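I would like you to help me understand the sequence and structure tokens below and explain how sequence relates to structure.
___
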Amino acid sequence: MPSQIELYEEMSLLSSRMAEAARASDWDSLIQLERSITGLRNTLMEAPDDSNAPAPDLARKRSLIQRILDDDAEVRRHTEPWMEHLRRFLGGSTRHRDVLKA
């Protein structure tokens, strides 16, 4: 089983690719990458505790987590407006169907 630091490094690489996909509005790639990160997260939950790791390793882990969080914020900056547009579109369709039913 990979170490926690190795899992975080892989997650960081994938989250960076997710941010790139979000900037390019490449939703299919974004979904696939998110699935990969979910798998890594699940593996991470099973990884042995490393709270007694050397200070440099813990500092690296913190840095990776911060990069993942920064990438997540970038993804949200691009996906939230699209999701809001989709909500309005679907909401409008529902209202339109309700009017037609009436």
Notes: Residues 55-101 form the longest helix (47 residues).
